[in-house]
Amino acid sequence: MKISREVKTAILVIAGIAFCIYLFTYLKGEDLFGRTNTYYTEFDYNSLSMASPVTVKGNKIGKIESIQYDFESGKTKVAFNVTPELKFSKNSIVRLYQDGLMGGNGLAIVDANDGNIAKDGDFIKSEIKPGMISSLEKNFSGISEDLGSTLRASDTLLTNINALVEDDSDNGLKQTIAELNSTLKTFKNLASSANSLIKQNDEKIASMLANFEKSSSELAELTKGLNEANLAQSIKNLDDMVLKFNQLASGLEAGKGSMGKLLKDEKLYNNLESATKELELLILDIKLHPARYRRILSKKEIPYEKPTEAQLNNN
Q1: 137, 171, 191: which is the final residue of a domain?
Q2: H-state helical runs in the chain
Q3: 186 — phi, psi (to 5°)?
Q4: pLDDT digit of tens for each residue in the chain (315 aa)?
Q5: Three-state SS for 4?
Q6: Is the CB of residue 79 less than 8 Å from the CB of residue 39?
Q7: Which of 66, 126, 130, 315 is the 20 to 30 Å CA partner of 139?
Q8: Are 249 and 211 within one domain?
Q9: What is the largest CA-CA distance in the chain?
Q10: Residues 278 and 243 in one domain
């Protein structure tokens, strides 16, 4: 059987149209030949379109199949398809939410997670989540009042700033800026002078730094020498000597030993004083009567004569 050129052309055109339809649905993320489950819900007011997405946790898993107005109940019935891999509870909520600032809306399935899995054709309850634009519309009067108050406060602030800028008195902003400018110029001149001074004394500063480095090195060597000289042991020996001296002083104070008894024994002191007095008298007698002691081996005894007060005073 021979197929005419017209039939071949028609078949080619139909195949091209089918391919374009399949490609368009594929680019939209839809599977033309895939199986889907259909569920139903309803709203008091319709703000959906056939292009509105059906999502779960922000992921698109289906599309709107039909939107019909029920004249008996006065509500809008919506049928939507989702992929059969999605399992959710029959008691879940289909939430109508605002998809963007331009007013687009979508459906989101909020799973109840109670184990009562929904079946193809089940009715799912719905709710509406207020969007940002609708919230602004409700609160527009309050926002406008706050905005007006803010604008009035801004106007007052700008007026005060202008008055401050135009004030030529000592408290004005111009005067403050002029004083700040003068201060900055003075600081600049001071910095320039300091820089010039540093340049003029560059060699002296370098020499000073070199001397400081040399002194630091010598101090380090001195510290090392002191460490090697066992300064810690010398200090310990000095402490021991001071401790022994304190013990000796404590013993003298307590009257221990010969020196301690000499310092603390009053009887010994009196005996020494008496002996010293008698020795003094003996020396005085030797001075007054030397002949008596030259004849000490003689059998004739010369009696002792106590010196007079005049002799004692003369000596």
Answers
A1: 137
A2: 5-27, 132-138, 140-166, 173-200, 202-228, 231-254, 257-264, 266-288, 290-294, 309-314
A3: -60, -45
A4: 567 777 778 888 898 888 787 676 655 545 555 578 999 999 998 888 888 899 999 899 988 999 999 999 999 999 999 988 999 999 999 999 987 655 578 999 999 999 899 999 999 999 988 764 455 455 555 656 777 778 888 878 877 777 666 666 656 667 777 788 888 888 888 888 888 888 888 888 888 888 888 888 888 887 777 676 676 777 888 888 888 888 777 777 776 776 666 666 677 777 778 888 888 887 887 777 776 666 555 555 656 666 677 666 666
A5: coil
A6: yes
A7: 126
A8: yes
A9: 198
A10: no
What are the beta bridge partners of residue 96? Answer: 107, 128
Computed from CA positions of residues 117, 41, 82, 18, in that sequence, does the dihedral angle turn out positive or negative?
positive
Nearest to 106 by CA among 163, 41, 158: 41
Quick one: 205 and 276 in the same domain? Answer: no
CA atoms within 13 A on the CB side of 71: 0
What lies within 8 Å, CB to CB, of 228 at 6+ separation is none
Say if residue 20 is exposed, middle or buried (CB neighbours under 10 Å; 0-12, 13-18, 19+): exposed
Please tell me whether residue 93 adopts helix, strand or coil conformation: strand
Q: How many whole angstroms separate alpha carbon 185 and alpha carbon 187?
A: 5
Q: How many CB atoms are closer than 10 A to CB 175?
A: 13
How far lies 30's CA from each of 16, 23, 83, in Å? Answer: 19, 10, 10
Last residue of a domain, one of 122, 137, 152: 137
Are residues 48 and 63 in contact, defined by beta-carbon separation less than 8 angstroms?
Answer: no
Instruction: State whether the Cα torsion 113-116-121-125 is positive or negative.
Output: negative
Q: In the 8-state DSSP scheme, what is residue 44? A: S
Asked if residues 39 and 93 have their Cβ atoms less than 8 Å apart, the reply is no
Residues 244 and 286 reside in one and the same domain: no
Q: Considering only CA atoms, give the Rg of the chain.
A: 61
207 and 248 share one domain: yes
